[in-house]
Amino acid sequence: MSPMRIRNSCILVCAVLLAAACSTTRRLGSDEVLYTGVKKIRIEPDSGVVLSAAAESAVKEPLSVAPNNPLYSPYIRTPLPIGLWAYNYLYTPKERGFKYWLYKRLAKQPVLISRVQPGLRTKVAEQVLENYGYFGSRADDSLRYRKHGRKAKVYYTLRIAPPHYYADISYPDVNGGLKPLIDSMYATSLLRTGAQYNLDTLTLERKRISQLLRNRGYYYFRPEYMEYLADTTAARRQVALRLNLKQNIPEVALKPYRVGDITVHLTNIKPGPIDTLRLGEVKVTAQKPMKIRPKVLARALSLEPGQLFTVDAQTRTQTNLNKLGIFRSVNLSVTPLDSLRGTDTLDVVIDAQFDYPLEAALETDVTSKSNSFIGPGITFKVSNNNLFRGGEVLAVKLNGSYEWQTGNKNSGGRSSRLNSYELGLNATLNIPRLLLPSSMTRRLKYPGSTSFQLGVDLMNRPDFFRLIAFSGSAGYNFQTSPYSRHALTVFRLTYNKLLHTTEAFDKTMDQNPAIAMSFRNQFVPSINYTYTFDKTYGATANRRFYWQNSVTSAGNILSGILAAFGEKQPQRLFGNLFSQFVKNVSEVKFYHRIGRRNNWLATRLLVGIGYAYGNSSVMPYSEQFYIGGANSIRAFTIRSLGPGSYRPPAGDRNGYLDQTGDFKLEANVEYRFGIMGRLNGAVFLDAGNIWLLKNDPKRPGAELTWKGFAKEIALGTGFGLRYDISYLVIRADLGIGIHTPYPNPDKKGYYNIPSFKDGLGFHLAIGYPF
User: Taking the CB of residue 201, how many other CB atoms lie within 10 A of it?
Assistant: First the structure.
């Protein structure tokens, strides 16, 4: 070992020993004990008893108090308790100077056993177990001392008694109009005879009944007007449950109401003369000029005079008005209690103030790409949010980006003198309703929208090509449930045309006929349907399931029409070939919160497949799959993997053009945890690759086959930091490569990264990866 390495090693050892010697209890009082976390939470169920996962998570929550500098809370701490060191060694009574400034920034108050109060927490744990039906369970605590009694961990023991089950369930015995409603609710009750006692279920059942009654006209009914009586003495481990109405419930809560008069007040930002009109039985007062069409306003009102007053209709009315996007504020009020005076109707007053219709936004960013291009981008967007007085949004967006190439080993150690740029002009018109016959939309419970788009984009790559793309589309967006959304693009036409190519690009295309065909001048007529299911559930909203499936069909309808007129393949549109393919992308994401803090386990599985046929042998380049990068396999840069086990020749600057495929498989697992304040951390594992569905002799090993499939899955791990500033998350990830899909002659075995340094990939990004 060299003298320099010996010196550095000695310095490191001394630094570690010095840090270990620093006391974290120096300023504690003589009777104070530093809490250093939980030693163990031991669960001892009685014979035959199984503690449910939900109950286990809930009962551990009050016991899992984070110590100072937690790493894996509440069990493991980081080895460098900087906050405690600063608290013990940087304290100064002078409230000025550098030392005081450093103390305020770094010092953390010690977490003491006296503040954690383990004895009190065991009582809370016993109550939690009772809430889940484990009556008679016991929780005990003991301390495990260190450092002469100045530090201690807590050891918890939970003895779980057998659970109790519902033996009998009774609903309120009421008279009058409430009786048939209460009786009808019993059939859909969340409570079932023989089910395990659960306080969360009892709470949800009260809310369910209250919500149902409020949607039957009982507007002033509340969950707290009901109470449970539970008898656990009738039989062993059995609960006789009765739901009763409390005494002295306000009379207004037991009375159904209908919608009375509805009045809408519309105000502009600039005051104007008042005009009054009627929409059926609804009275509207508006300042001139009236900035909403009467039909649009009438369509947004779900409440109708004379009908039973329902909370759902009230919520839909307010939601519909807000979704128009033309109001600064929308307030809905009903007749106050002190003004009812025995009436059986509720008058509604809606106050809505218009917002400025014109809006402008300017955005800038800095992009970084795996082909060693970096540079700034800018987007300028102008929108009119009430074009035809019905919430129609016309947006025109001008975007541009300028990139220059940095010199590295992939670019031959030189920078490009001719730099790249992209320019785009896109216009979109969004209409907040479905432009379809009313017979098709009258049953839709949720509002939909219709959108149109026209755009042109120019891409200049001076070393390769100059390409222009024209696009236009029309489609619908609608919702069929609180969790299900649909997007249907009934027509989309894109035209890609190469304006100029370089000799180097032409040579690359000559060597790669399949890639060359994906760059040809062509029309891409397509239709697309995307279904999205997104639901957050669980008693504490601690789970979320997301599934999105997108299907694209390009050129098939047009090909059928031309074939009907006798045109054989290859078929053309306006003298140019058009693409014909089908493509499906399915993505599943599942999030599970661990405990009740901001600790999440996030998982994703993505499968995509595209197949070109008929008029095309390959999909357009923009439709092909690629993998790697900040939102994919983070140990590898974007477009640096696949397809299959194929690897471009070393030193080929244009190699990334080959690294696209027809089939994609990707899986990600990420554990996200809080560190301090707005700073969070994550550890992750990424895997996946892309493949071709057809053999390409120019790219050996790229075709999807069962043989060697497992070895062609790239694998990477790593860790990252996230800083949450409310409206966005700044993310830094360091990926660590474990396995590449292509063989490496310098490194055999599954871990085939030549060196640890070669397997590192750093990404700075905005937002979460998935």
Answer: 19
Q: Which residues are paired to 383 by β-bridges?
A: 359, 395
* Distant-in-sequence, close-in-space partners of 447: CB < 8 Å, separation ≥ 6: 320, 323, 432, 433, 478, 479
570-591 burial string, b = 16+ CB within 10 Å, else e? ebebeeebbbbbbbebebbbeb
Q: Residue 11: pLDDT above 50?
A: no
pLDDT tops 50 at residue 612: yes
**331 with 351: CB under 8 angstroms?**
yes
Question: How far is residue 231's CA from residue 238's CA, in Å, rounded to a whole number?
Answer: 8
Alpha helices in 498-654 (DSSP H): 503-511, 513-518, 556-564
pLDDT band at 80 (very low <50, low <70, confident <90, very high): confident
Query: Which residues have a Cβ under 8 Å from the Cβ of 223 and sit 6 or more positions away?
Result: 203, 206, 207, 209, 210
Local confidence band at 596 (pLDDT 50, 70, 90 cut-offs):
low
The yes-or-no verdict on residue 538 having pLDDT over 90 is no
Distance CA 323, CA 447 (A): 9
Token digits for 311? 């909370």
Helices 178-186 and 199-214: angle between axes, nearest 10 degrees: 140
Residue 249's CB: how many other CB atoms inside 10 A?
A: 15
Q: How many Cβ atoms sit within 10 Å of the Cβ of residue 215?
A: 16
For the chain, the helix, strand and coil percentages under 3-state DSSP, each to the nearest 5: 20, 40, 40
pLDDT reading at 417 higher than 70: no
DSSP-derived pairing of the beta strands 226-231 and 76-77: unpaired
The pair of structure tokens assigned to 681 is 């951390």
**356: left (phi > 0), else alpha (psi -120 to 50), else beta?**
beta
Tokens of 73: 């809370």
Percent of the chain predicted with pLDDT > 90 = 49
Res 675 pLDDT > 60: yes
Of all helices (H) and strands (E), which one includes residue 4?
A: helix 3-21
* Structure-token match 């999030």, residue found: 591
Closest by Cα among 664, 667, 653, 642 to 770: 667
Least confident window among 101-110, 358-367, 503-512, 557-566: 358-367
b/e burial code for range 438-470 (CB count within 10 A of at least 16 → b): eeeeeeeeebbbbbbbebebebbbeebbbbebe
Quick check: helix, strand or coil at residue 665? strand
Token duo for residue 69: 């500098």
Q: How far is residue 296's CA from residue 281's CA, in Å, rounded to a whole number?
A: 16
Residue 646 DSSP symbol? -
DSSP state for residue 149 in the 8-state scheme: T
Phi/psi at 381 (5° precision): -130, 130
Q: What are phi and psi of 60, to 5 degrees?
A: -75, -20
Report yes or no: 362 and 398 within 8 Å, Cβ to Cβ: no
